[in-house]
Specification:
The protein contains five helices and six strands. It is α+β, with helices and mostly antiparallel strands. The protein has one domain: Chalcone isomerase. Strands 1-2-3-4-5-6 form a six-stranded antiparallel beta sheet, sandwiched between helices. Helix 2 packs antiparallel against helix 3 (about 105-115).
Length: about 180
């Protein structure tokens, strides 16, 4: 009986920790977005799948929930899988290339920047990308800034992975922009 009580107590503590950790992460994300996007509200949200595997949940925040393509806005990726940061950087460059961008010198420079910024993520982790009013792109993980890219064209091309007309995930784009009237 003593073992059952201890096991039960451990499960309760784990549940409390799990819920409080999620609340802290949600507060971190909201505070981070609020610092950069005035009157930030959700524009839309959707799941990205690759061959039936759920990779992440994407949520777009814009002023008053109305994305116009102009900065500032934020995109939160809530990961459903463990991924290496280098793989995220490579996939980002591949997606930018698939949209027709052909400047390989710049793509290589952007890859190097992203590979140095993006951490390995575990299931449940979130990366927040923010396109600031001045055109700078800032990235956050676990409530901490993990890097930035000051190239305005990078920001446009990077967020076009999800929001551009040439995205390889048009269904996700429609979900993200559902509240913007686009």
């Amino acid at each position: 009986m003593f073992k059952k009580i201890n096991l039960f107590a451990v499960l309760i503590v784990l549940c409390i920790y799990s819920f409080s950790a999620k609340d802290v992460r949600a507060e971190d994300v909201a505070a981070t977005i609020g610092r950069h996007v005035p009157q930030a509200a959700v524009t839309g949200s959707g799941e990205y799948r690759y061959f039936l595997m759920s990779i992440y949940q994407a949520t777009l925040y814009a002023p008053d929930g109305d994305w116009s393509g102009e900065s500032p806005f934020a995109l939160v990726l809530h990961y459903h899988r463990n991924l290496k940061g280098e793989r995220i950087a490579k996939a980002s460059v591949d997606q930018i290339r698939k949209q027709g961008y052909t400047d390989e010198v710049r793509l290589a420079a952007w890859y190097n920047q992203m590979a140095g910024i993006f951490p390995d993520v575990a299931e449940g982790d979130e990366i927040v990308g923010i396109l600031k009013q001045n055109g700078e792109t800032v990235f956050y993980h676990a409530g901490q800034q993990i890097g930035h890219v000051r190239d305005h064209e990078f920001g446009q091309r990077f967020f076009d992975i999800w929001l551009g007309h040439q995205t390889t995930a048009p269904h996700l784009r429609r979900q993200l922009l559902a509240g913007s009237g686009e």
